[in-house]
């Protein structure tokens, strides 16, 4: 860089005026640090302008310094005092507020944990209530069955597995007085999807089947004991597998269990 | 540099440094303010405000951006312009018959009672009319190079070179 040319360009005067853009100014500041002769030039321009503007002052405002300093010292004290006197208080304050925040956070955590466990307990309670209701239901059913088994008026008819399922086995308990037949189907295989067991009351001579009902909800019934109305004078019972909803006549190829009433 | 050290001390809140800064710059700053405001009492108020700003804002001064003198100059010009635009100043309806610093210098040299009137005339005499206008706009009023070119209706480059010549003349007499 031709320093003399740079100085002669007049940029330094504008720099001291503050008439340059921020980036131009920064650049001159850099050049000034690099070249002592630029620095000297800038200082001389500054001195001339300082003298010129001083000449424009009506008088030396030296007497204002005292009141100005009082304004400073007031401001200064305000800044100083907390530095010296209240440092501990500030530290304690900060520590307290941090502890408070930690405490708050812990409480918040604990609270949400408690809320979660309450929710879990509530869900558990509902599950247990359901279980209890189910157990009560089962117990009632069991008791009913017990009554049935002990009743001397009940006729027990074993139903043997047929060729389609030789291992199948069922029992019919027939209460003639109440016209009710209980089917214990514990040893029947689960029916395939869309199929259902249908129970038939049979007359032997000639063979006449009449439907007395379906073993609905076979899968979900725990005891596998079904209570069916039976107004017939039955001579035997048969169980066939039928399409869902049952059939009007039994599908003999799907006969699972069969037994006759011994007279 | 001594000046740099002084600024660092001022920035760290040293009152002695502030006093020194006041001694160095208060007359010049008062001159700048007065050249804009033209009222001694109001200018005193503004001067005090300016030096309080210098005290409070010293930490924001960045030596890489420009001269400390320029920084003060900007604060003083802005504070003065704010003042003359303010409502309470306008209400005073101050008599602003003087046009620029030259009139102030002339007025001062005419009043024989003032001590520093001696030698002022030479500043005025040596400056041709264009120089007076350039220095008034660029230095006292804080115009940019572009604003000055438009105001005086001269090419942008001329502002820079012509002003250089004017300041050179000033320096040859002042220093």
From TrEMBL, chain A:
Organism domain of life: Bacteria
Domain Anti-sigma K factor RskA C-terminal: 95-251
GO MF term (any one): sigma factor antagonist activity
GO CC annotation: plasma membrane
Keyword DNA repair belongs to the record: no
Transmembrane segments: 88-108
UniProt record, GO biological process: regulation of translation
Keywords: Coiled coil, Membrane, Transmembrane, Transmembrane helix
Entry-linked Pfam families: RskA_C
Protein name per the record: Anti-sigma K factor RskA C-terminal domain-containing protein
Species: Gillisia limnaea (strain DSM 15749 / LMG 21470 / R-8282)
Lineage: Bacteria, Pseudomonadati, Bacteroidota, Flavobacteriia, Flavobacteriales
TrEMBL record, chain B:
GO terms under biological process: DNA-templated transcription initiation
Keywords tagged on the record: DNA-binding, Sigma factor, Transcription, Transcription regulation
Chain ranges of the RNA polymerase sigma-70 region domain: 24-88, 127-171
Pfam families: Sigma70_r2, Sigma70_r4
GO terms for MF: DNA binding; sigma factor activity
Family to which the UniProt record says this protein belongs: Belongs to the sigma-70 factor family. ECF subfamily.
NCBIfam families, per the entry: sigma70-ECF (TIGR02937)
Protein name, entry field: RNA polymerase sigma factor
């Amino acid at each position: 860089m031709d320093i003399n040319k740079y100085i002669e360009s007049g940029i330094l005067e504008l720099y001291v005026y503050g008439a340059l853009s921020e980036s131009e100014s920064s650049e001159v500041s850099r050049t000034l640090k690099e070249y002592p002769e630029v620095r000297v030039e800038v200082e001389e321009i500054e001195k001339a302008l300082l003298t010129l503007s001083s000449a424009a002052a009506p008088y030396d405002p030296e007497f204002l310094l005292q009141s100005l300093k009082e304004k400073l010292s007031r401001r200064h004290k305000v800044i100083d005092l907390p530095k010296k006197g209240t440092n501990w208080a500030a530290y304690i304050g900060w520590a307290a507020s941090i502890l408070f925040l930690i405490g708050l956070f812990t409480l918040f955590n604990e609270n949400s944990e408690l809320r979660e466990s309450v929710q879990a307990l509530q869900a558990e309670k509902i599950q247990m209530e359901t279980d209890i209701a189910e157990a009560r239901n089962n117990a009632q059913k069991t008791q009913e069955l017990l009554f049935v088994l002990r009743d001397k008026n009940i006729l027990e008819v074993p139903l043997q597995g047929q060729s389609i399922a030789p291992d199948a086995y069922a029992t019919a308990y027939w209460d003639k007085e109440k016209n009710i037949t209980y089917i214990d189907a514990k040893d029947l295989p689960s029916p395939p999807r869309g199929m259902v067991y249908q129970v038939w009351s049979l007359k032997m001579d000639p063979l006449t089947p009449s439907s007395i009902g379906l073993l609905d909800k076979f899968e979900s019934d725990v005891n596998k004991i079904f209570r069916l109305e039976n107004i017939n004078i039955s001579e035997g019972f048969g169980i066939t597998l039928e399409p869902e909803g049952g059939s009007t006549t039994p599908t003999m190829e799907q006969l699972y269990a069969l037994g006759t009433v011994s007279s | 540099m001594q000046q740099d050290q002084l600024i660092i001390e001022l920035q760290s809140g040293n009152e002695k440094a502030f006093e020194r800064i006041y001694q160095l710059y208060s007359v010049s700053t008062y001159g700048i303010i007065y050249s804009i405001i033209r009222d001694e009492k109001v200018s005193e108020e503004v001067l005090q405000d300016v030096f309080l700003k210098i005290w409070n804002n010293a930490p924001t001064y960045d030596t890489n951006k420009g001269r400390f003198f320029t920084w003060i100059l900007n604060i003083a010009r802005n504070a003065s312009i704010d003042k003359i635009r303010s409502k309470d100043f306008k209400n005073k309806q101050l008599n602003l018959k003087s046009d620029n610093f030259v009139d102030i210098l002339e007025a001062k040299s005419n009043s024989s009672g003032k001590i520093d009137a001696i030698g002022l005339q030479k500043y005025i005499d040596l400056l041709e009319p264009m120089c007076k206008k350039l220095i008034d706009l660029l230095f006292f009023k804080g115009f940019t190079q572009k604003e000055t070119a438009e105001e005086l209706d001269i090419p942008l480059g001329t502002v820079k070179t012509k002003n250089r010549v004017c300041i050179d003349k000033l320096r040859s007499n002042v220093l």
